[in-house]
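Both lines are given unchanged directly below:

***
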Amino acid sequence: MDVRSGCPINLSLEVFGDRWSLVILRDMIFGGRRHFRELLTGSIEGIASNILAARLRTLVDLGMLTRRDDPTHKQKVVYSLTEASIELVPVLAALGSWGSRWLPVTGELSVRAIALGDGGPAMWERFMAELREEHLGIPAGPPPGGKTVRQKLQDAYDAR
């Protein structure tokens, strides 16, 4: 990565300043998508396959994702979040909360962001623990109340 300055905001924008990187990470974090085809067809924003391939390569090169062969299918690969990506949960929660307050969002698509924002740091920490278990193999322990954070966010969506 070419560095224009040592400013942490500038450097972060160089990683996430394009239109698609955070959308891909959002779909992996909140949607549980881990394969190219899931990311290609599952996003309502309609990313082109060549752009998706390029962004996935970049995110792997930057250490935000890992890529490995899928043991269940010879022609597939599985993408996993790294710790650096998992630690974006509070950032995404803040972006979602801000966007829900200040931008012309739809109620349907903002309900999860609002629920995550309202859940606060305790929910974010639990979600990051669950993502670590899913992507890094670090046990999170049973979810409080029997439901994962992703399930709770889906329940909020379904209840709208």
